[in-house]
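Usage

Read records sequentially. Each one opens with the input sequence:
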Amino acid sequence: MIQRKQTIFLFLAFVTTIVCLCLPLGSIELQGMGVEPVLYNMALAQPDNNGVNYDFFYAPMAALLVLAAILEITAIFLYKNRKRQARLCAFALVFVFLWLLLFMYFKYFDLTKMGELQQSVASYLPFLSAVFDYLAVKGIRADERLVRAADRIR
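and closes with the structure output:
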């Protein structure tokens, strides 16, 4: 059924993933003078005299979140096939964890050359999405156990 609690968790995971994709992850406090670059999931926006330059080296972070969002929204509508729904949620959880690892790599190894990253609230949203994905997987597995127990009684 689409009214199950894991549907709500999957929808919340989808919303937090999309919000994280749209908002900046933080700004880099430069060691010298200048306008602070802003880190998005897709690119690093560096303002200069001619406008804004975008460095698309950070695009794999956006790709991971887009894949996770697609899996989360697809899993909502696979409520009739609980095994596949749980598998899609688990893959979405893996993509979110890969995003977290990639973000930590960029934060501690790549962006420290320019300055210190001042994180925004959006950089914590994938962790929240991972929690919602985990709760959805847990709920789907509980439903599967309940259905199997009901089949044994018959």
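Summary fields computed downstream for this record:
- The radius of gyration is 19 Å.
- The chain has a mean pLDDT of 87.
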